Amino acid sequence: MGAVALACAVGCGAAAWKRGGDATPAAPTAQTMAAEAPSTYLLLRVSERRLYLMDHDPHTPVESFPIAVGRKGHETPIGRFHVEEMIEHPDYHRIDPKDRTRVLARVPPGPANPLGERWVGFAHGDGWTVGIHGTPRPELLGQAVSGGCIRMRNADVIRVYERVRLGTPVIVEP
Asked: How far is CA 156 from CA 16, 19, 94, 100, 150, in A?
């Protein structure tokens, strides 16, 4: 069985995220990050609705993927983060926004799961978690429709999942 993931009032996410991320980080550029980055890092450009898998050369992505980002009022956080959590076939729990201790629905792994085939958590704060995940609704890619998370085609998020590790840098630019 997959690990449990939650839908919170802001963002979506896994229940067992690790503390240590910065919910309000500075926003470095891809060029400044290149000097500090390990060989692989993720660059998300919210305005382009693209995720870039970067490796060594800060000017040439290894791969690029279409994404959906956070909608108005639930914008994807901008800044420098790192991969905090990785889950294959996550469970999804929809939480009551008025009572976060109450689970309204549980969706097991499978074609109806809003998190798709993989979860890569990279940002969190009090009561919210944001990550990169698959989606059963790829027709929404290119739009601002999520609760702050990054949605991808399941095949694409699996490719990204296979290339990142805990601690991999994630840069989110406007």
From this structure: 24, 27, 24, 31, 12
For the stretch 97-151, pLDDT in tens is 888 788 899 999 999 899 999 999 999 887 788 999 999 999 999 999 999 999 9
DSSP state of 48: T
Q: What tens digit of pLDDT does each residue of 141-166 get?
A: 999 999 999 999 999 999 999 999 99
How many angstroms separate the CA atoms of 11 and 155, rounded?
Answer: 22
User: What is the average pLDDT across 75-93?
Assistant: 95
Spatial contact of 10 and 127, defined as CB atoms under 8 Å apart: yes
Residue 105: strand, helix, or coil: strand
Domain range list for the chain: 4-173
pLDDT at 13: 52
Assign domain 4-173 to its CATH architecture.
Beta Barrel (2.40)
By DSSP bridging, strand 169-173 and strand 40-45 are parallel
What are 100's strand-pairing partners?
A: none
Catalytic site positions: 133, 149
Distance (Å, whole) CA 52 – CA 68: 13
Identify residue 125 by its one-letter amino acid code. G
